Every structure is written in C-alpha cells, then in structure tokens.
Amino acid sequence: MCFLIESAMSAILQVSNLVKSFGPIKAVRDVSFEIRRGVCFGLLGPNGAGKTTTIEMMEGISSPDSGTILYQGEALGKQFRNEAGIMFQTTALQEFITVREIMVQFSRFYPAAASIDELAEQFTLHEFLNQDTRKLSGGQKQRLLLAMAQINNPKILFLDEPTTGLDPQSRRNLWQQVQRVKEQGATILLTTHYMEEAYELCDEIAIMDHGRIIAHDAPDALLAAHFDDVVVQIHAADIPREIGESEFDATYRNDSAHIVTGDVNKTIERLLHFEIPLNRLRIRARDLEDLFLELTGKELRA
Known about the structure:
The protein is of the alpha/beta class.
C-alpha cells in the first residue's frame, strides 16, 4: 500500500488500462504505465504498434474507448493544457510572418508565457527572430518548434520524433537542447525511430508492439535482461553473404554483417578458417537496435 502511494506521488502522468479501437482494428490493448517526474521517458515501437494512438490520447487529442489518463492525479483538463508542451512530428508553420511574430502568437494561448527573447537565446534563434518562417532551415525550424513547445514553461513536454529528417549535426544539437530542458526540471515523453537517440536521452523506455507494452525499464537494464552476448561486426564486402548467413547465422544491415556470439575467440577462429579478412572487424556490445529487432521482429511494416 505504501509503495502504491509513493508511486502515485512520484508520477506526473499515469496511464491505466487504455483501450482504443478503430472499427475492427484494436490499436491499443490494455496499456498501462507511469511517467515519473523529471525523467525523459521514451515510447518506442515499429509502425502500426499503437504508440501514436497512445500518445494522442495522452496529449488529450483523442479519447480512449476505456481506461484512464491522470495528470498529477487528476483527469486531463485545464491544468494539463496549461502545463503541457507538444512538439508534433510535423507542424505547418504559418507563412509570411516572422519567427518573433509566430512565437508571440503562440504565447497568447496561455495565461503565463516565457520570455521570447530568453527562449530565442536558449534555442539559438536570436539571429532569426525577424526572419520569415519560410526561410528557416530544417534544423532552425526544429529549434523553433521546440522553443514554441516551451512557450508556456511546461511541466511535461511531448516530443514526437523531433529529429526526423535532420542531419547528424542538427540532430545532436537538438539532443543538447532537450537535455537542457530536462535539466530545468521538465518531464519529457519522447518518441523516436532512432535507437541511439533513445539511448542517449531516455531514463526509461517502453517498447510497444501490436497495441501492447512488451518491455519497460531503463535502457541498460533492458539490455542486461535480454542479452549475455556480443556482436562481431564484419564489413559486408569482406564476408560473402552465403557464408555469413549459412556458417555464422549473420544478419546484414548498414553494409555490415552482424554475428551474435557468446564466444568471440571461437567466432574469430572460424572467420580465419574461411579466410575472412579481419582488418575491419569490430566487436560491440548489444544496443537498443538489437533489442528492438529482437522484440518486434525484423520484417518491414507499412
């Protein structure tokens, strides 16, 4: 009983037994989890897993068929709307207005708003405040959308695939911005298809598939629970596919053959036996991409 009370007090958002169907398709099947205050919580899953439907219910955009969502112990309502920030995966910015003008426009949606100049400084937008929104680069636009999601000083921030389409430099810049937001005390719910991003930013992750939560814990705890082996990685050009697949049960992705093994020495001996060059060999620990594929399957989904 004491644990339940402590858990409820530490959770800013509680999701209980959510169900959502679209005609005969049950998109979300009895989903429950909590998001603790001050953490970055990652909700991951392949296309069609039900995560977008779950997030839209958590954001108050749609209603569940059954189940409850509580924000600070209360049903989603005015307090939640005033204290939540949302950065959607795609947002059509109003055109023919400046960055400052659109930030002013959004600030008027809330009873209290952050300083636009301070947000511009924090998200490196001060040089673009008087620029037309149409002329922003992809990275600049994403920083603006993140700043707009912060306009009400939110206590909980939803980030829906915030770095999709960005180059590596812009992606890592946005990671730094998200880390700063978290350091300022906000709770973050992140969805992403980049496993490196989830590992870098998230304190906890939940993986959804076929409308259910199939794994939930800290990233390192999940990896430790599922794997006791490593991956020997060979450049695909160095190991013929027929040998890799038949002799080593290798999987091929990103121009590399990935050989899962619990005995590295034996694996290297067998590679040498087949005269596979080792000059580009790499040994790595299991990562979230391995876990994601292990739990949700390797087939491509529409």
